[in-house]
């Protein structure tokens, strides 16, 4: 019966699941498993040889010639030693040892280990082909090494059962390893995707903060330029007025430097968690202070606020309106120095919010123009588009420059 076991299973070694691995490094677990398989195989070879050479006819399984016992023992030891390389050449080793399954009792356990390795580490089609070949050789084994107490068919059936059990066990182990590998790859992929999402979110946040700071800095620097220009063109101004303008310039410069320091710190930070919390963003309620800054710089600004239910205005919508007005005032100071500016806001829930900034088109040469990147209106257009609104800018029928935006304002 044990002979039948040996016969049917040539095999392969553990490698990769369905694919060939290039000389994988043997782990501690692999060393332990291989050592155990080798020792069990050697023990089986010694036990089977002792039984075959026993003088007791009830224990001995006599071979026609005495030298066959020794030859079978050497074949069994050779197969046991081959277990150390079965991980590298599984299929080749299985095919090379396949003829031994027809007659060798001593090589039974090593051949089963090789066969199990094939099932675990090779495709199902390969495993089934090796199994079919082993079942054929098992039939010859039962003829050449018959069991004294069992019939031919009983021994053959036992060999088939053992082969199928090893096949089922190997396929289960392979399926489990594939599942574990798939779950590990999925977890690694999910972790990589999460890191990518975090990096993208961090980059988007830094870009947003940089855009916000661009708007703020452009506004403050335009105020600085306006005050400095007033001092340049009025060197005979009263001392109190000069001191007041100098104080405004100093305060605006200090605020601009603080804003610049913050945005550079954000863009340089490797870990967004290390950045200090962002300052509260301005909303429509901060528009009077923004207009006050421009008035303090000498710009004539008329603010008309006709917004109904302003307390229900979403914060994001109010922030967008604030940035539109800020950009409009900055452009007026840059390109229409001395011109009066009208800022008008009107709207209500469900009707939408309309923001309009209007100033006279400059006539003749203006003071030295304030340099700019020319991307302010592009940024405003992007904000309005993200909010789902519409933006218009340019000269209207009266010749004024008009910057107008409509933003949707949901009822809830």
TrEMBL record:
GO terms for cellular component: membrane. Gene3D superfamilies: 1.20.5.1930, Histidine kinase-like ATPase, C-terminal domain (3.30.565.10). SUPFAM superfamilies: ATPase domain of HSP90 chaperone/DNA topoisomerase II/histidine kinase. Signal peptide: none annotated. The keyword Phosphoprotein applies. It catalyses: ATP + protein L-histidine = ADP + protein N-phospho-L-histidine. It is an enzyme of class 2 (transferase). One of its GO terms (molecular function) is protein dimerization activity. This is histidine kinase. It comes from Micromonospora sonchi.
